[in-house]
Amino acid sequence: MMKHLRTISKTENNGGFENDEKEDGLMPVSPVARCFNSSALNLFILCVLESEIPIDDSKAMQLLEDVLLPLNTRFSSIMIEGKKGKKQWKPVEVNLKEHIMVPILASSNNPAKLYDDEFDEYITKIAGQELSQDKPLWEVHIIRYPTRNAKGALVFKLHHSLGDGYTLMASLLSCVQKADDPSIPITFPSSKKSAELDNDGNDNINMKSMLKKLPQTIFSVIKGASDFGWSVLKGTVLVDHESPIRSGHEHVASRPFAISTVCLSVDSIKVVKDKLKVSINDVLVGMVFLGIRLYMEANNDESSKADATGLVLLNTRRVRAYKSVKEMLDTKTDSGAAWGNHIESMHLPIPKLSGNSSSLNPLEFVLSANKIINGLRNSLAIPLNGVLIALIDKIKGPEAAAEYARKRMVNSSLIISNLVGPVEKVAIDNHPVKGFYFMTVGLPQSLTVTILSYMGHIRIGFGVEKEWIDVHHLTSCFETAKDMILNA
């Protein structure tokens, strides 16, 4: 057992942590990480990697010791409260046997001896379990049973305080190899480059051009103030209606949780994107919103017109292309892709069905998503929300900031999170990855939607409050929405 214990030196490089004052040489926990690991919020990320071949777990401990632990000392640290009351990351010895779970599932009743139902039950079980705070905040579950999608699966359960989706995807990319040739480094994927200022190489902006932009600047400021005001109201007094996708249950975060996924071709989405002159994200959000409204209408005709908003998570880093973990932790050079939780959110109102589903124009949902997202993309409300939470943390403390963040979630109907995954087939420990998806759990909402691309396909995950939403009916409604939009 001692072979799998690793002591982390306190002098080890901990780049990427906030530049708060250190206490006893320990690294401070960032305000957002404190927020995600509090009495108000306790959030985790599940990442499921589906293997093309049966899983051999004989080298699991060695792989984690050699690859995962050296990535960042957060994987070898626990969160403690310092003498001044501020939380710190404290390096500890890691007993890998406490972090690796190899469950024995109940015998399958499926004639083909597939374990889809048993796997789903196991995911529901671990989604509802908290991670122990007295050891590093992650686990790996090795599922050695076949399902319709794979011969086996690796399920990583990581506390959200370790980092956001961008951070954890970069960590995953640092642990995998190209499936066809492990000796060649994988290509780090990226979404479209962030828009850059285009001044034809001339940095001298004359007064005339400034005056031309003045009305637009004034409009942006006024709109940003309006968006911010609405966002604050959504975090305090404006609450979405109770509906088939929002139970309003006080303890929804601790209720049984179920996950189902749908796979789409990127090429099919690009057809809609090119015809409507919108982005892939616009098409996907439009599909999700239409599928949700169809589900609401099927359950309660009046609810299809109820007020409902989605909280969309945004990566606030200057760059959108992934960097290696080494680059993210390098404090000497500013890569613009620091480790940690660098995310904000914006509220998107879900368009209502103007008539019954048989007479509507499904493309209106895509165009509406495009209009709303473009209107909010560069809104001042996004950075102002971050400033507000930081002020609450500073004045009233981290628990008050976490409670405000929780209220913003509680008052909306769902959260949507989107990540770009590998563009080529990858393998982990010589196990080719057939597909994978992720899900945030512990959120105080009845519905969570995640979107992840991999090898020309998009995997959409629906995480639901099991006793309120029929996840299979919901995914069926999404499939109907997808077909309606593609056919239109």
Automatic annotation (TrEMBL):
Its main location: membrane. Residues 81-283 form the O-acyltransferase WSD1-like N-terminal domain. Residues 339-482 form the O-acyltransferase WSD1 C-terminal domain. Residues 1-23 are annotated as: Disordered. It catalyses: an acyl-CoA + a 1,2-diacyl-sn-glycerol = a triacyl-sn-glycerol + CoA; a long chain fatty alcohol + a fatty acyl-CoA = a long-chain alcohol wax ester + CoA. Keywords: Acyltransferase, Endoplasmic reticulum, Transferase. It is found in: Cell membrane; Endoplasmic reticulum membrane. It comes from the Eukaryota. It is a single-pass membrane protein. Pfam families: WS_DGAT_C, WS_DGAT_cat. Pathway: Glycerolipid metabolism; triacylglycerol biosynthesis; Lipid metabolism. In the N-terminal section; belongs to the long-chain O-acyltransferase family. This is Diacylglycerol O-acyltransferase. The lineage of its organism: Eukaryota, Viridiplantae, Streptophyta, Embryophyta, Tracheophyta.
